[in-house]
Design a protein that fits this description.
The structure holds two protein chains of two kinds. Chain A is mainly α. Chain A is 67% helix and 4% strand. The mean pLDDT of chain A is 84. By secondary structure, chain B is mainly α. Chain B is globular, with a radius of gyration of 21 Å. The N and C termini of chain B lie far apart (59 Å). The chains are: A mainly alpha, B mainly alpha. At the A-B interface, helix 4, helix 5 and helix 6 of A face helix 2 and helix 3 of B.
Chain lengths: 396, 166
């Protein structure tokens, strides 16, 4: 009974946090892209556009739901459902922290721990192609069909590299469960170099990390590999014919895939929730970062660029001050410190995703395939062989 | 709980298998086949073979069927048109099928030795570790032979594609 109750609670918390992350990830993306391109990004709805996600959700929910004529009805309705449910399901096996003890209940910061967790993620990602493929095919539109064909080919090609990049850290860790992979990256070399897989002896996985990230960009259909929805060639790619909530499903699944793949990258290569710095300093990084943010906000409140900044900046500054105080209380450290490190690593990787979108142009389709098969795949293969060789010769 | 899940997913598998044959459009058939693969993966999970279940989804549900769907879309295959039915297939089809299934069941029962009933979750040999051990010790030769076979198939595909391009 207790198990079911705790699981339900965990599912509720993870779902709520995940959904609001998805909504605000889009706000962050628009803000960051705006500042990269010397714009301000969303600004009108709420202070600094902070209520923009709510407005977007209301807009998408209340828009007319069109069902175009001549579509294959069943598959047309099934495709967004497949896309969104598969991309939301993968978060259920991601651990956000170690075993914790809240009010005498010992539990893992994870919905469920599969001992084949990494294979589960691969299985989900290999099936999620169908959402895109069916959407394009059932829409009865040549742009949609071209987009979905491109997407299927791209996902199949990059999945190989993705899998090879995943296998090499597994050789170092000898586990398939995310929690155990993360736990075998705990500790430090020489007292200050973390034993994360990108630093792990005998063969640091820095190249595997790069291959994983590149393949991850292709798997999530993000710039520079967003050929399936290249708007100047294909209108909007596979979701051209979708409107209202059905379009929002595809949109949401893209962001959910992004979060999942950055979580997996963090757990496989960046040590999961294990901190960058040794000892008690790791606990203090969080409060210091929040204090700095609060200080910057207060400083800007003193010299407001606009009238309302005098009012909004101190409020956000106070919020960050409260966060800093909460993160600085030692009894909360066992829960909050791992969470802080995990979330900040995932956040940095997500920022890289957005940064790349603001920086790099789109590939041409033949370049994309050429890159995958003649460069990325052989490199990942060589990296795997080298890892296997070093693990066999020097042991763990 | 296990029995309920087994009944649900066994039913789904059988219904999908029938649907696979009855559907007129190739894409519908392909998706029914994915349903069969997925429910089989759940049955493997019920038996305690997590690794096999995931491999089933990745290899069959993912790789193989994506290729099928991809080819169907690329060729833009339309609905299947039934040819003028022969009276023999109409009359004798179902009785012959039933006879065949009965014969097959009888042969399996008489040839195979009697076995214990399956208990859900009692088997513990399905972990990745045990399967790896078995593959690289007891079944090393078949494993290597299969890998060579697959290599030959890949080379064959490359050679055929080369001719097409030139």
């Amino acid at each position: 009974m207790n198990f079911f109750l705790v699981s339900l609670l965990k599912i509720a918390i993870v779902f709520a946090v995940f959904m609001s992350t998805l909504a605000y990830l889009q706000w962050i993306e628009r803000k960051v892209l705006g500042h990269i391109q010397s714009r301000t990004g969303p600004l009108r709805v709420g202070p600094h556009g902070l209520l923009q996600p709510t407005a977007d959700v209301i807009k998408l929910l209340t828009k007319e739901d069109l069902l175009p004529p001549f579509v294959n009805r069943f598959f047309y309705l099934l495709a967004p459902f497949i896309a969104v449910s598969l991309s939301l399901i993968a978060i259920s096996i991601i651990p956000f922290g170690p075993e914790i003890n809240i009010f005498g209940v010992r539990t893992y910061m994870q919905i469920s721990d599969l001992n084949v967790g990494i294979l589960f993620v691969l299985a989900i990602s290999s099936i999620s192609v169908y959402g895109v493929a069916l959407a394009g095919w059932s829409s009865n539109n040549k742009y949609s069909l071209l987009g979905s064909l491109r997407s299927s080919a791209q996902m199949i090609s990059y999945e190989l590299t993705l899998t090879l990049a995943i296998v090499s850290p597994l050789l170092l860790n000898n586990h398939l469960s995310f929690r155990e992979i993360s736990d075998s990256q705990a500790g430090f070399y020489l007292g200050f170099i973390p034993r994360w897989n990108i630093f792990q002896m005998p063969f640091p996985q820095i190249f595997a990390f790069l291959f994983f990230m590149i393949a991850g960009f292709a798997e999530t259909n993000r710039v520079p590999f967003d050929l399936p929805e290249a708007e100047n060639e294909l209108v909007a790619g596979f979701h051209t014919e979708y409107s209202s909530m059905k379009f929002a499903c595809f949109f949401m699944s893209e962001y959910a895939n992004m979060v999942t793949i950055t979580c997996v990258a963090t757990l496989l290569f960046l040590g999961g929730w294990h901190p960058l710095l040794p000892g008690v300093i790791a606990n203090l990084v969080g409060p210091v970062v929040f204090l700095l943010v609060a200080a910057v906000l207060f400083y800007h409140a003193l010299q407001p660029a606009r009238k309302r900044d005098r009012f909004t900046f101190p409020i956000f500054g106070l919020a960050f001050l409260v966060l800093a105080i909460i993160f600085a209380i030692p009894p909360f450290w066992p829960v909050l410190t791992p969470l802080f490190w995990f979330v900040s690593k995932v956040g940095i990787l997500l920022f890289v995703y957005i940064w790349v979108r603001g920086t790099l142009p789109r590939f041409r389709y033949d370049q994309l395939m050429h890159f995958a098969w003649t460069f990325l795949f052989p490199c990942a293969l060589v990296n795997l062989l080298a890892t296997a060789f070093f693990v066999a010769v020097f042991g763990k | 709980m296990d029995t309920v899940l087994f009944i649900i997913f066994a039913t789904v598998a059988v219904v999908c298998a029938f649907n696979l044959v009855l559907q007129k459009h190739p894409i519908s058939s392909a998706l029914s086949l994915i349903g069969v693969m997925g429910s089989l993966a759940v049955l493997y999970l019920l038996l305690g073979a997590e690794f096999i279940a995931m491999a089933q989804v990745i290899v069959y549900g993912g790789a193989v069927m994506v290729l099928f769907v991809f080819v169907i879309m690329l060729l833009n295959a339309g609905s299947e048109k039934s040819s003028s039915k022969s009276w023999f297939a109409n009359v004798a089809g179902i009785p012959l099928l039933l006879a065949f299934v009965a014969l097959l069941g009888f042969l399996i029962r008489s040839v195979l030795p009697p076995m214990r009933a399956v208990e859900f979750g009692s088997w513990v040999g399905g972990k990745a570790e045990q399967i790896g051990q078995m593959l690289f010790t007891e079944y090393l030769l078949p494993f290597e032979v299969v890998s060579v076979l697959i290599l030959i198939a890949i080379l064959g595909a490359v050679v055929l594609a080369q001719k097409e391009i030139d």
